[in-house]
Amino acid sequence: MISGGRPLQGTITISGAKNSAIALIPAALLAESEVVLDNLPLLSDVAVYAEILENLGASVSWHELENQMRIDPSSVRSIPMPNGPVKKLRASYYMMGALLGRFGEATIGLPGGCNFEPRPIDQHIKGFEALGATVTNEHGSIHLYAKELRGAKIYLDVASVGATINIMLAAARAKGHTIIENAAKEPEIIDVATLLNAMGASIKGAGTETIRIEGVSEMHGCRHSIIPDRIQAGTYMIAAAATRGDVLIDNVIPKHLEAVTAKLLEMGVHVDELDEGIRVLGKASYNHVDVKALTYPGFATDLQSPMTSLLTQAQGVSVLSDFVYSSRFKHVPELARMGAKIKVEGRSAIIEGGELNAAKVKAMDLRAGAALVIAGLTVGEGVTEVSGVEFIDRGYDHIVDNLRNLGANVWRETLETRTL
Length: 420
Ligand code: EPU
Fold this sequence. Notes:
The chain is an alpha+beta fold and 420 residues long. Helix 11 links the parallel strand 21 and strand 22. The strands form seven sheets. A four-stranded mixed beta sheet has the order 2-14-16-15, with helices on one face. Strands 4-5-3-13 form a four-stranded mixed beta sheet, with helices on one face. A four-stranded mixed beta sheet has the order 9-10-12-11. The chain contains 14 helices and 23 strands. Bound molecules: uridine-diphosphate-2(N-acetylglucosaminyl) butyric acid. Uridine-diphosphate-2(N-acetylglucosaminyl) butyric acid binds next to helix 1, helix 4, helix 5 and helix 11.
């Protein structure tokens, strides 16, 4: 529930990156001893992953107050997981690479998660097959088997984040040399390679389009601190601008947010880059801009929906196109309920600036949910009711507390308390 119209003001400290965390947790399975992950975000997706690892026999202790998880994978076995928690997460596909790398075998139910459009995993499969695995689809589960994984040269048809990480996981313990060409370059890929190298792997070139992996026969535990969540940080930057606020977004790597910073500056928002923080100072009126969501270092597709809400606050017509996902626009009909004037044409949303009004809206996926919260924060009269908040909890820890600390009037209501 959001009673908006107040500028966000103050400091927010960003937690560790979700899309790193949910790759680093399965990566720990490749070790023979304890892996400690620091700066872990408190998210429902992280809890689901902890459950998956425990089901496999890992000992997992999650110290929520210290943002730390300790994973001892020494007793893990490759138990088939056709159903259960793997179905709740898209990123459960990382179990394929991790278990294949460690045991040469895995059975994983096809992943769930945010299904804003069909999200194929053909490039992951192509990579596993190139490494020598046989991959079959058995009643909706992917079964992978390799007597021995061997290094290979793999060219990705699309620079997929998931496929790049999954192939790194499997190849880390394969025999010989693997080269991934047209690899994705997102910061989360560097984070995963950093962890794997600290565990004894030999991976070079992560963050560029060519990654070279020299397989090792054994990997060990280590301690690793997760990079800050650039998508969460970008969302709060956008929220600060949308509410004409003044917010210091702390514990970020400003370089990871250059594309957002550039677009906000173009709109006329005041943005100051500090060493580990970014200050966003909103203005009364904004220029319209065109935005193209691309792979990193382009404007992140995960910030495309939040950006749509901000662009409703600009003067004139903005065009926002997504070149990563062609139809990630489930937030648009919901924003239209709030009075937004948006037309979707192909892979673009054409947004005409104007005031929004409070309404009952529904989050259909994580980032669409964030977009609706930002829209609600801009509305001065009435209460915006966002349902489907379980999606938002997948990627934004303590979102209500964080927004309240910045002065927003936001609260949760459950159906039970509302009918009392
Ligand atoms: N693609 C294929 N075949 C594949 C894999 C991907 O055609 O085998 C296509 C996809 O359909 C898409 C494009 O390649 O058009 C990029 O997909 P990618 O594989 O990079 O996405 P992902 O790894 O499944 C991760 C994040 C997403 C984020 C994308 C793009 C995780 C768990 N998810 O997904 O995050 O949107 O990269 O940056 O890391 C989110 O956080 O809200 C979220 C959806």
